[in-house]
Amino acid sequence: MDPLLVAGILAAGIRLGMAIGLSAIGESAAERSGVFNIGIEGIMLSAAFVAAWGSVRTGSPWLGIVFAMVIGLLLASFHALMVLVLDVNQFISGIGMVIFGFGFSSFAARLTIGAKPTSIPGLPPIDLGALTNVPVVGPVFFGQSPLAYIALALALATGWLINRTALGLEIRACGESAEVARTLAIPVKARRSACILFGGLTAGLGGAYLSVVQVHAFVEGMVAGRGFLAVACVMLGRRRPLIAFLASLGFGLAEATQIRLQTLYPGLPYQFLVILPYLAAIVALVIGHRNVERAA
């Protein structure tokens, strides 16, 4: 294959998988603490709208991203209240957030920035000068958005904290056995709440990435299942933040490949190509589940 074509697919795969990866980082921490949040889809949708609205109102994409992080924290705090205080089933709470995200983002968008896609101030990629212009390698590694490098740093830092620190040991203990953790005087609810809030913050970043970095607009339903793919990445990565993040880039690569295949082979039904990333998710989960069973 043409090296430029390969470089273009790889660079696009990173861009397309970054929203999933950002959300998967925080969800990995939440699941390690013992709480699932399948409402990531709703948080990402809400955050995508808030980021777009904030960027339009202030003229600053960075402020839009901050607003998205705030709405992510608010929705995550609601999930923590439902699950940890009111003892609501965590999956029911998550489904409620998905429904809320669809309704809130669509209704609020029509009231504010309009029903049609509206161009918003976007966050441009970092220009690293000569490094960006290096053939093949430059566009892939040195031509990405600032959020892409922040995401990589978050994945590494979260993995280190969970696996190499005393706080991470307490988080893992909460996920393995809350009763045993309580006998060791570990504040289970406090640790789980912190992880849920962190998951909401990264899901907010993921939603903001879609509208402010990837599309430069808000479109109703634009998350299109990426929140559920983030959960799949966490399961595939066995709740390890860095592995889940890398898995998300693999799904982004599958999406970039199907987009390029539509151009190269216009005769193929595009519906078949569009399902490739989701088919890859299903296959990966099946393989991952079999590996877990064999290890057990």
Short description:
With 296 residues, the protein is mainly α. It contains 13 helices and no strands. The chain has helices spanning 3-32, 40-58, 61-85, 90-111, 137-141, 146-164, 166-176, 178-183, 188-215, 226-236, 241-264, 270-274, 276-295.
Topology:
Layout (H helix, E strand, L loop, with lengths): L2 H30 L7 H19 L2 H25 L4 H22 L25 H5 L4 H19 L1 H11 L1 H6 L4 H28 L10 H11 L4 H24 L5 H5 L1 H20 L1
Helix pairs in contact: 1-6, 1-9, 1-10, 1-11, 2-3, 2-4, 2-9, 2-10, 3-4, 3-9, 6-7, 10-11, 10-13, 11-13
Description:
It is a single chain. With 296 residues, this protein is an all-alpha fold. Helices cover 76% and strands 0% of the residues. It is built from 13 helices and no strands. It has helices at residues 3-32, 40-58, 61-85, 90-111, 137-141, 146-164, 166-176, 178-183, 188-215, 226-236, 241-264, 270-274, 276-295. Helix 2 crosses helix 9 (188-215), helix 10 (226-236) packs parallel to helix 13 and helix 11 (241-264) runs antiparallel to helix 13. The longest helix has 30 residues, at 3-32. The N and C termini lie far apart (41 Å).
